[in-house]
Write a structure and sequence with these properties.
- The protein is built from 4 helices and no strands.
- It has about 150 residues and is mainly α.
- It is rod-shaped and about 90 Å long.
């Protein structure tokens, strides 16, 4: 999106510059004013786009953090159930719980570490992250089902 605005602004500037050489002084002032106005409009649109992206990211992060906290609670519930297990079953159950806990922590770190500012990368990151988050949710559910 940003590159699109920059490209449009550059093209506009080139056209305006070539127009300057063959225009009268009043036309040059008019073109200059148009360039200034267009630049201001582009700056405003870019800020609006940044604000929209930030709002969407903040909402996504809040939603995901809620899911991560729910996962932590579900994992704590699984740990409580583990106390009823004995021997090899307990060992296997503890390993599954440990794996789920690590995966949940990895998801939190992945979200916290994301810094890219482009819309395209954000979309890709979000899709992949949601896929991984869904997989983790299913894995937690499977452990609950398997160990009733």
């Amino acid at each position: 999106m940003k590159t699109k605005f920059v490209t449009i602004a550059a093209l506009f500037a080139i056209l305006a510059t070539t127009g300057f050489t063959s225009c009268s002084e009043s036309k040059k002032e008019e073109v200059s004013e148009n360039i200034d106005q267009t630049t201001k409009e582009l700056d405003t649109k870019m800020e609006e786009t940044k604000d929209d992206m930030k709002k969407q990211r903040d909402e996504f992060v809040a939603e995901v953090n809620t899911k991560i906290e729910k996962n932590k609670q579900d994992i704590a519930d699984l740990k409580a159930k583990a106390k009823d297990k004995k021997g090899e079953a307990r060992k296997k159950y503890d390993e599954e719980i440990d794996d789920l806990e690590k995966r949940n922590d990895k998801m939190k770190a992945k979200l916290d570490d994301y810094k890219d500012d482009s819309k395209e990368h954000w979309k890709s990151f979000k899709e992949e992250f949601n896929h991984d988050m869904d997989g983790l949710g299913h894995a937690i559910g499977d452990v609950f089902k398997d160990n009733k």
